[in-house]
Amino acid sequence: MASERYISIKDFHYDLPDHRIARYPLEERDLSKLLVYQNGTINESQYINIDTFLPTESILYFNNTKVIPARLFFQTSNQRDIEIFCLEPISDNADVYANMLQQASARWKCLVGGAAKWKEQFVTINTPHIQIQAEIIERLKGAFILEFTWEPSDKTFAEVLQIAGAIPIPPYLKRATEELDLERYQTIYAQKEGSVAAPTAGLHFTDRVFGKLKAKQISVNYITLHVGAGTFKPVKSETMTGHDMHGEYIDVPLETIEFLCKNIDKDITAVGTTSLRTLESLFWIGEKISKQPSLSVSDLMVEQWQPYETSNNQISAKESLQHIIDFLKQHGLKNLYAKTSILIVPGYQFKIVKALVTNFHQPESTLILLIAAFIGEDWRKVYQYALEHDYRFLSYGDGSLLFR
Asked: Same domain for 273 and 378?
């Protein structure tokens, strides 16, 4: 365990020139470049041809979360601007999507820009279509719990954000949200509202690509992880022991877990690090249930160091998934709602995922650690190749297909 905790983040640095960060997406999603890494070798292609690199009867898992317009611009009574960034609902219900459907009022954990100017009880947004008030309920370390109320009160919180909010594009794009981001910073299969950042590996997939996957009998499945702002949180500690991994909500249908359990020996590919974190978290939730059968539904969570603190006599992935299936049936649940803070660093033993589709990530980030855990020291070779061959980096950039 000690070795994982004392990984130095400085060992995962590479030089990313500013001009290599893609500020805008390509005209056509599926013409982005695709670097394919397998058995130590690298090939170049485009997303439109990803099917040719995946074995027949592979199983792909996509994250169908939907980015919400989580940025709201309020004003004080003397017209001073307060920017509010909604992070996650404050609720006993781990189903983030259900929280989006609340009417009349909602409590959320938020970041507040200009908090020092907020001297009064309420700040407001007034438009011809909606009036919104925000009130501070509690001050947390680095964040606030706010209560929003609105008129007309029959609108859901999702509708409130659609009317008054802005899509929060990543800070490293160093530009304001534009009209094209409303469509392009969203996967074409986005369904369940709740993310404040897009699962960017999926941005490259189109109906054309899905048609080619279907023709090759590649199974397409959907799971949900609502991406939090913590995905952009830099690692500020010298070693990982000082880094608090952010928690994110997952939502996986019972029938999806049953299908995965039945097909666990096939080639399972995660589209995006969020899908990978969800699938690997399933193993640790099942393992937790196996040790503590009387767990309550609210105890279904994965702590960041849990995978490194477990003894070696572990159950198989199939057994672990079966424990979740039995647990959900016992509690009469059709979906698994849980929270995961899983931290995947070199030394992690993968349980479910064999291949990963992902973009190129920032230096010294938890995502680079995940890539290094997945393909080992060759992560440097892959990133060096991408830099030398004009690949575009980060959210709107090109991507890779990596085989373990």
From this structure: yes
Q: How far apart are CA 366 and CA 379, in angstroms?
A: 13
Q: Are residues 221 and 337 in the same domain?
A: yes
Domain of residue 49, residue span: 2-66+184-403
Cα separation, 145 vs 112, in Å, equals 10
Mind giving me the DSSP string for 87-139?
Answer: EEE-SS---HHHHHT-BSEEEEEEEEETGGG--SSEEEEE-SS-EEEEEEEEE
Helices (runs of H) and strands (runs of E) counted in the chain: 10, 18
Residue with tokens 């938890």: 366
Supply the pLDDT for residue 213. Answer: 97
Backbone angles phi, psi at 264, to 5 degrees: -60, -25
For residue 16, count CB atoms less than 10 angstroms from its CB and return exposed for 0-12, middle for 13-18, buried for 19 or more: middle
Given a contact cutoff of 8 angstroms between Cβ atoms, the answer to whether 226 and 95 are in contact is no
0.90 surpassed by pTM:
yes
Q: Are residues 56 and 92 in the same domain?
A: no
Co-location of 194 and 262 in the same domain = yes
Q: How far apart are CA 126 and CA 211, in angstroms?
A: 45
Query: 3-class DSSP state for residue 213?
Result: helix
pLDDT at 343: 95
Strand partners, 125: 132
Compute the distance between CA of residue 404 and CA of residue 395 in angstroms, rounded to an integer: 23
Splitting the chain (404 residues) into consecutive groups of 10 residues, what average pLDDT does each group show?
A: 85 96 97 97 98 96 96 93 93 83 94 92 94 96 94 95 93 91 96 94 98 97 91 84 90 98 97 98 96 92 92 85 97 96 96 98 96 98 98 98 97
Instruction: Please report which helix (H) or strand (E) contains residue 275, including its range.
Output: helix 273-291
